[in-house]
Amino acid sequence: xxxxxxxxxxxxxxxxxxxxxxxxxxxxxxxxxxxxxxxxxxxxxxxxxxxxxxxxxxxxxxxxxxxxxxxxxxxxxxxxxxxxxxxxxxxxxxxxxxxxxxxxxxxxxxxxxxxxxxxxxxxxxxxxxxxxxxxxxxxxxxxxxxxxxxxxxxxxxxxxxxxxxxxxxxxxxxxxxxxxxxxxxxxxxxxxxxxxxxxxxxxxxxxxxxxxxxxxxxxxxxxxxxxxxxxxxxxxxxxxxxxxxxxxxxxxxxxxxxxxxxxxxxxxxxxxxxxxxxxxxxxxxxxxxxxxxxxxxxxxxxx
Length: 303
What we know:
Helix content is 39%, strand content 24%. It folds into 3 domains: 2-83, Arc Repressor Mutant, subunit A, CATH 1.10.10; 97-167 and 270-296, D-Maltodextrin-Binding Protein, domain 2, CATH 3.40.190.10; 170-261, Periplasmic binding protein-like II (D-Maltodextrin-Binding Protein, domain 2, 3-Layer(aba) Sandwich). Strands 6-5-7-15-8 form a 5-stranded mixed sheet. Helix 1 crosses helix 2 (23-30), helix 2 crosses helix 3 (34-48) and helix 5 (105-122) packs across helix 11 (284-296). The protein is α+β, with helices and mostly antiparallel strands. Belongs to the LysR transcriptional regulatory family. This is LysR family transcriptional regulator. Residues 6-63 form the HTH lysR-type domain.
């Protein structure tokens, strides 16, 4: 079908080419031969009177015109999917669909584990992919690569709806046999101890790490971990100290010899929220899932 001279079927190909920036990879994703993908790129170049993708060294880069088109094309496709293409009526007992959510290991262990256990009883054929935070989670949501972000609200986009899940505070955590720390720890003592810190790959420091850095104090970081779930094991049998979300620290303290102390400085509470793309607002399946996640992961979830 053509609209003002443009074959609308090429919009999907254009979106994939601009995302992959590689004709071979785009062809694989679209289940096309490389020659067919190259031919589609040639037609798109002819229509827009622009190269769109140009070779630069060993990689291909977007032209300024392609950069302008990328976001608009993706939004058009998402809007068509969310508002025009109607899915079959949703029945949680029979629905089969993968739900993709960006969530840290903290959220996975303390919130998603019990919530998804409950959801699986109601919708046994729904599957969930819990994806660690990436370089730009908001861009993944914008592009429709994930259905939800379950992250602190400070990382959410102002352009899409969201709902508060719960708030949590922090605790200083040490091994139960740590001889250098009593029942409390002062800021001076805290800064002299060796620390286990968390820094997410390609994203940066964790929330409390970001706060400590802004507070103007440099910790003596002995070990940097890529996830919170590794921290208790790196404390065990040592005199190290770490800051952890209270809910997660309590979960591990029930299984390991850990002691939880008030942090030496007041760290703002972290407000976890669920965000979804505005075009998915009326998606019946996603609406059902998010309503149950909000209920099950809320401030006072049912037993």
